[in-house]
Automatic annotation (TrEMBL):
<comment type="function">
    <text>Converts cobyric acid to cobinamide by the addition of aminopropanol on the F carboxylic group.</text>
</comment>
<dbReference type="Pfam" id="PF03186">
    <property type="entry name" value="CobD_Cbib"/>
</dbReference>
<dbReference type="GO" id="GO:0048472">
    <property type="term" value="F:threonine-phosphate decarboxylase activity"/>
</dbReference>
<comment type="pathway">
    <text>Cofactor biosynthesis; adenosylcobalamin biosynthesis.</text>
</comment>
<keyword id="KW-0169">Cobalamin biosynthesis</keyword>
<keyword id="KW-0472">Membrane</keyword>
<dbReference type="InterPro" id="IPR004485">
    <property type="entry name" value="Cobalamin_biosynth_CobD/CbiB"/>
</dbReference>
<dbReference type="GO" id="GO:0009236">
    <property type="term" value="P:cobalamin biosynthetic process"/>
</dbReference>
<keyword id="KW-0812">Transmembrane</keyword>
<dbReference type="GO" id="GO:0015420">
    <property type="term" value="F:ABC-type vitamin B12 transporter activity"/>
</dbReference>
<protein>
    <recommendedName>
        <fullName>Cobalamin biosynthesis protein CobD</fullName>
    </recommendedName>
</protein>
<keyword id="KW-1133">Transmembrane helix</keyword>
<dbReference type="GO" id="GO:0005886">
    <property type="term" value="C:plasma membrane"/>
</dbReference>
<feature type="transmembrane region" description="Helical">
    <location>
        <begin position="203"/>
        <end position="224"/>
    </location>
</feature>
<comment type="similarity">
    <text>Belongs to the CobD/CbiB family.</text>
</comment>
<feature type="transmembrane region" description="Helical">
    <location>
        <begin position="296"/>
        <end position="315"/>
    </location>
</feature>
<feature type="transmembrane region" description="Helical">
    <location>
        <begin position="53"/>
        <end position="76"/>
    </location>
</feature>
């Protein structure tokens, strides 16, 4: 079975099953491994060096284990490729908050949102909750969908002993992403220890974030008859209005497509920050924006897999002729 067929099955599995909470997801196992190593390595006096070792060990072990999983069975390879995608689970999280808000339970919506974001949710109104959900969906459209796709397809061109590196590349990316989410904070505890993890995450997301914001999301917006011109305009203008060198790319494209403005006053750990704005405020936030963002997420994932499939197919033909 060729890679395109295997990845197509994995993609459909993600759309159907998402991330069942009862299932011991590989990312959770990676998280447990990170916690275990952190307790040991954080004791070192040179936090930057020990943090670098954390990154190397976690990514290296994930890569090697994924390689042997791929070597055992293509069925296992397909299954684990499916676990690197998060289209449905990300959409479900947004829909869950939207449904609670529709039912009028603001306090429950704040609590549900607190599981998704690191910002303070206690004093949020409906507009702020909606904005937070939209920012989460737009940012994670890269981490949870486009970037794993990119690395899976990239790895499919490389083989070791006839074993494709598609899964090791995709799962290795997820390991880096998990490291960043756990130790990549710019606070007193992780400023040095998490520096290598955070910088590595910035590097691996550089290309996927720009492919997503500059092409995939605007094209998805055009298919949906959203404001695709606005998506491209805001991407070009505001994508650097973010503390992350990558997150602003997809956020800007989403903001432009939906006609809303991200950023502004945001509370983290009891302190108010004035984040740079992304997008033009053509309208106030409402619950329909969440459903539109979910549609944009799904269609972006479809555009992504079609794009990477076509590129892979054409490159395969070219390589066979050489």
């Amino acid at each position: 079975m060729n890679f395109i067929m295997k990845y197509g099955i994995a993609y459909v599995m993600d759309l159907i099953f998402g991330d069942p909470h009862w299932f011991p997801h590989p990312v959770r196992i990676i998280g447990v491994f990170i916690n275990f190593l952190e307790k040991i390595l954080y004791k070192a006096s040179n936090k930057k060096v020990s943090g670098a070792f954390l990154t190397i060990i976690v990514v290296g072990v994930t890569f090697i284990v994924s390689y042997y999983i791929s070597a055992i069975s293509y069925i296992l390879e397909i299954f684990f490729l499916y676990t690197t995608l998060a289209t449905k689970s990300l959409a479900d999280e947004g829909f869950r908050v939207c449904k609670i808000l529709t039912e009028g339970d603001l306090e429950k919506a704040k609590k549900e949102l607190s599981y998704l974001v690191s910002r303070d949710t206690g004093n949020m109104d409906i507009g702020q909750i909606t904005r937070s959900v939209l920012e989460t969906i737009s940012e994670n459209s890269v981490d949870g969908v486009i970037a794993p796709m990119f690395f899976a397809f990239l790895g499919s061109f490389i083989h070791i002993d006839r074993v494709s590196l598609a899964l090791p590349f995709a799962m290795g990316y997820k390991a880096i992403n998990t490291l960043d989410s756990m130790v990549g904070y710019k606070n007193d505890k992780y400023m040095d220890f998490g520096m290598v993890s955070a910088k590595t995450d910035d590097v691996v997301n550089f290309i996927p974030a720009r492919i997503a914001g500059g092409f995939i999301i605007p094209l998805a917006a055009m298919i949906l008859r959203f404001d695709y011109k606005g998506a491209w305009k805001i991407f070009s203008r505001d994508r650097l209005n973010h503390s992350s060198p990558n997150s602003g790319n997809s956020e800007a494209a989403f903001a432009g497509a939906l006609g809303v403005q991200f950023g502004g006053k945001t509370s983290y750990f009891g302190k108010i920050y004035e984040k740079p704005t992304i997008g033009d405020k053509k309208k106030s936030f409402d619950l329909r924006d969440i459903m539109k963002a979910i549609k944009l997420l799904y269609v972006s994932s479809w555009v992504g897999i079609v794009l990477f499939t076509v590129i892979t197919y054409l490159l395969d033909l070219l390589l066979k002729k050489m």
